[in-house]
């Protein structure tokens, strides 16, 4: 399943981001971008997760993932 991030800035200042990996995520992010695009001085950038960093723990029962962080790249 793909994960997308919509980064929102206004006047160059980061306001935040929206991450989603629901079914149809790209269409969802594009719909949100359309809603925000009408705002004054709103800058949007779309990113897609291309990989992830994982934190692992090893113990007597084997290895398990204890955390993960998606690594995003900006789409053109």
Q: What's a concise summary of this model?
A:
This protein is α+β, with helices and mostly antiparallel strands. It has one helix spanning 25-36; strands at 4-10, 13-20, 42-59, 62-74.
Model description:
This protein is of the alpha+beta class and 76 residues long. The protein has one domain (4-74). 16% of the residues lie in helices and 61% in strands. The chain is built from 1 helix and 4 strands. The protein has one helix at 25-36, and strands at 4-10, 13-20, 42-59, 62-74. Strands 2-1-3-4 form a 4-stranded antiparallel beta sheet. It is elongated. The two termini are 20 Å apart. The mean pLDDT is 94. This is Cytoplasmic protein.
Helices and strands in order:
Layout: E1 4-10, E2 13-20, H1 25-36, E3 42-59, E4 62-74
Antiparallel strand pairs: 1-2, 1-3, 3-4
Short key terms for the protein model shown above:
1 helix, 4-stranded antiparallel β-sheet, 16% helix, 76 residues, alpha+beta, elongated
Order of helices and strands: EEHEE
Biggest sheet character: 4 strands, antiparallel
Helix/sheet category = alpha+beta
Using only C-alpha atoms, the radius of gyration works out to 16 Å
Query: How many beta strands in the DSSP annotation?
Result: 4
* Percent of residues in β-strands: over 45%
Number of helices: 1
Strand order of the largest sheet: 2-1-3-4
Low-confidence stretches: none
Give helix % range. 10-25%
Distance between the termini: 20 Å
How many domains, as an integer? 1
Principal-axes geometry comes out as elongated
Give average pLDDT, whole number. Answer: 94
Protein name: Cytoplasmic protein
């Amino acid at each position: 399943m793909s994960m997308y991030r919509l980064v929102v800035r206004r006047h160059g200042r980061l306001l935040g981001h929206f991450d989603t990996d629901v079914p149809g995520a790209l269409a969802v992010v594009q719909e949100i971008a359309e809603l925000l695009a009408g705002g004054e001085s709103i800058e949007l950038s779309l990113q897609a997760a291309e990989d992830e960093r994982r934190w692992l723990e090893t113990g007597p029962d084997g290895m398990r993932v204890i955390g993960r962080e998606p690594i995003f790249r900006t789409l053109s």
